[in-house]
Amino acid sequence: MKKLYLVIPCYNEEEVLLETKKRLKIKMTDLIKNKVVSPHSKIVFVNDGSLDNTWNLILDFHKKDRLFTGINLSRNRGHQNALLAGLMTVKDDADMVITLDCDLQDDIDVIDKFIEEYNNGNDIVYGVRKSRQKDTFFKRNSAIMLYKLMHILGIEVIYNHADYRLMSKRAILCLEKFKEVNLFLRGIVPLIGYKYSVVYYDRQERFAGKSKYSLKKMLSFALDGITSFTIKPIRLIVLLGFMIFLISIIMLVYTLIRHFSGQTIIGWLSVMTSVWAIGGLQLFSIGIIGEYIGKIYLETKARPRYIIDEYLEEKKKSK
To answer: Which pTM does this prediction carry?
Structure first.
C-alpha cells in the first residue's frame, strides 16, 4: 500500500483547526481501515508563522496522536512557500501527497477519487470547483477575468483550480527542480508535463474564521502569476509603442496639410489630451518593465524560500 501525506498550510487558523483535525482524522482512518493507503500515512500541518495558538495546537495533536505531524516555519512566508515547504519536507517519505487548505472549503470526500486517479496512472490530480456560485459577485467575476487573461497571455493553468491537488513522489521530485523565488504553483505544476486528471467537487462554506486573502493579496498573487510565466505584457508595450509611432506619423501629415492650407490653429483640448495620454502610457509601461526587473532582482539574490524552525518527525534542511 502507498503512503499518503496530507499537507495543510496554516496561518492563524486556531478557530478552525480542531474541526479540521477531527474531519481529516476520520477520513484518513477510514482510508487506512479500508486498506486504500498505508497505515504509515500522515497528516502534516505547516504553520506559516502564525501569531495565534495554531502551532501549540499542532504540537498537541502530534503529542496525542502520531497520525499528525507538523512543520513550523521560522516566520510567515506566504501560502505558496508554506505549501512548497510541506511538499519538499515529506517528499522522501510519501508516495503521494495531497495539498489542501485548512479552512475545510475543499471537499475531503473526493480524496478517494484522487487516490483512484493516482492508481490509474496519473501523477497529478487536480481538484477543480464545479462552479463559483457561492462566491461574491466581485470575486466570481474577477476570478473569471483572471483565468481568461492568463489564457490570452499563454499561461497554462487549470480553470477553477486552486491548490487542492494530488502529486506523486516523482512529480514532487520534478517540482524540486524549479528554483524560482516568485512562486506560482498553479502555473508551475502543469509545466511538469506528467499524466494528469481532474476531479470535480463542490466547494464548501468556510467552517470558521476569516479568509486570509485580502483584495491586495489576491491582486499581488495574480500579478506574480502573470509576470512569472510570460513576457507578453512587454511585447504588448512594444506593439503599442509601434502603433503610437504610426499615429504620430499620421498626425504629422495631418498637421502639414493644415499648415499649407492656412489652418494652423490647433485645439488646446487635443494637445492636453495627447500629453496626458502619452505621459500616462509611458508611466504604465515603465511600471510593467519595472515589475519584471524587480522579479529578476529577487531571483538573482536566490534567498531561501522558507526556513524550517521545527519538524516534528526529523530535522530537515532549508530550501
So the answer is: 0.76
